[in-house]
Amino acid sequence: MPRISPRIRRLAPHRLLAGLGALGLVFSSACDLPGELVGAEEREPVRIAVTDWPGARANAAVVAYLLEEELGVPVEKVETEPAASWAELGAGDTQVLLEDWGGLPDQTRLHVEQRGDVVAAGELGISGHVGWFIPGEFAEAHPEVLNWRNLNDFAEQLGGRILQADPGFATRDATIIDELGLDLTPVAAGSEDALVDEIHQAGSRGTPLLAYFWQPHWLATKVELAEVELPDYYPTIPLRKYLNAEFAEEGGEVVDFLRAFSWSERDQNAVAELIAGQGLTPRAAAERWVEDNPDTVAAWFN
Predict the structure, then answer these.
(1) Locate the ABC-type glycine betaine transport system substrate-binding domain: which residues (predicted)?
(2) Among 59, 81, 226, 253, which residue's Cβ finds the most Cβ atoms within 10 Å?
(3) Is residue 49 predicted with pLDDT exceeding 50?
């Protein structure tokens, strides 16, 4: 017989009451089947694309925890890169993309509008913004550095570089540097963790550093950062969710939950900080957040 989580009883009793009759029918029918067939069929895992940044890991942690604990659906997290995620989603290698920053509009048009193998699943509830950032203490001492027109005056102090994270991230930095005539070169730190370490060290010491970075990010709760005023290369955008089209048609209550899943920057940062800042496992971080936010969770199951 299907397991009914005690937490679901607390969060969405009206949903369960509406389904008790159906559950009774399922149970009665199951009693007429040979014992070895009851519950023998295992559910296929839901495959969630997870890109290499804390916000994406926080999304996947909470969604995976609730799918497994509340809906009894296994989950497989598939590590990917933004450039590869669309092809994987369209092919069904993954079924869920929880956080798209709109950095690959050609891929969105190809898979959503032309091929139709990916469908939109609504907004994540968070607005994302990418930009160039300077540690707050250095920016306070040299406020003119926050105007892009003055960056060449600080190029030597900045090491002639703008520091990025993973070389696989989609950025416009090379184009910006070329169009604005800046004496800078994009340099990859190698990973987001490496970028975060360098920003944290520079922020703690008050040393100059120019970094490609984004909000929301849990590091902003630990280190003061100031944003360089650039032309509108990196607008603030609502982050969006996408699903494999076939999965969206057949996913039933799982798809209903995924479409309903929406939370705030504060929520995401809280889970991301537990994982990246405090070293909790994604599952432990998700469990703690879920226990602390029952009303938010309940709304996703209505």
Answers:
(1) 45-291
(2) 59
(3) yes
Same domain assignment for residues 119 and 144: no
Q: Is the pLDDT assigned to residue 176 strictly greater than 50?
A: yes
Residue 8 has pLDDT above 60, yes or no: no
Distance of alpha carbon 32 from alpha carbon 232, whole angstroms: 66
User: Are the CB atoms for 120 and 128 separated by under 8 Å?
Assistant: no
Higher pLDDT: 205 or 245? It is: 245
| Residue 289 lies in domain | 46-128+236-299
Contact 198, 122 (CB under 8 A): no
Residue 111 falls within a domain, yes or no?
Answer: yes
* Contact of 172 with 266, CB cutoff 8 Å: no
Number of structural domains the chain divides into: 2
* Pair 93, 50 in one domain: yes
Tell me: the pLDDT tens digits for 125-153? 999 988 999 999 999 999 999 999 999 99
- Answer yes or no: do 120 and 140 share one domain: no
Contact partners, residue 24, CB within 8 Å, separation at least 6: none
Would you state the pLDDT for residue 52?
79
Same domain, 190 and 279: no
Q: Are residues 288 and 148 in the same domain?
A: no
Separation between Cα atoms, residue 144 and residue 282, nearest integer Å: 41
Long-range contacts from 32-40, C-beta under 8 angstroms, 24+ separation: none
